[in-house]
Amino acid sequence: MFRDTDPVGIYPYNKVSREMRGVQSVRERGGAMSYVLIHHKVENIDGLRSMFEEDSMRRRASGSKGARLFRDPADSTLAVALLEFEDVERAQRFAESTQLRELIGWAGDHSDVKPEVIEEFVSLDA
Hints:
By secondary structure, the chain is α+β, with helices and mostly antiparallel strands. It has a single domain (22-124), classed as Alpha-Beta Plaits (2-Layer Sandwich), CATH 3.30.70.100. The chain is 33% helix and 30% strand. It is built from 6 helices and 6 strands. It has helices at 18-21, 26-29, 45-54, 56-61, 88-95, 98-106, and strands spanning 23-25, 34-41, 64-72, 75-85, 116-119, 122-124. The strands form 2 sheets. A 4-stranded antiparallel β-sheet has the order 3-4-2-5. The mean pLDDT is 80.
């Protein structure tokens, strides 16, 4: 009985197209985006925000297509940066760059930050 329904039990799963379910592979969408994910522990989250905003030109020159900065609502010293790149090679170069090490230092993060390169492989509408 359950194998014929979707995970939330709304549609007959086998009869609903991938398109109707909102499933879109990276190939269907036109290519994989790669990201650099950085977990920060900083003394001054507002200083990190200012530095992040001011450094957009250098990120763009390194191949970044966009960037987002997230913060932990329960701990004002924790932040996560997510930087988008067209391909994994550019993301990897940026993750290993001296420029990124400098930025992390300027942000006041003195922990052992290890930027991660990740690649999107499925995109869903919801």
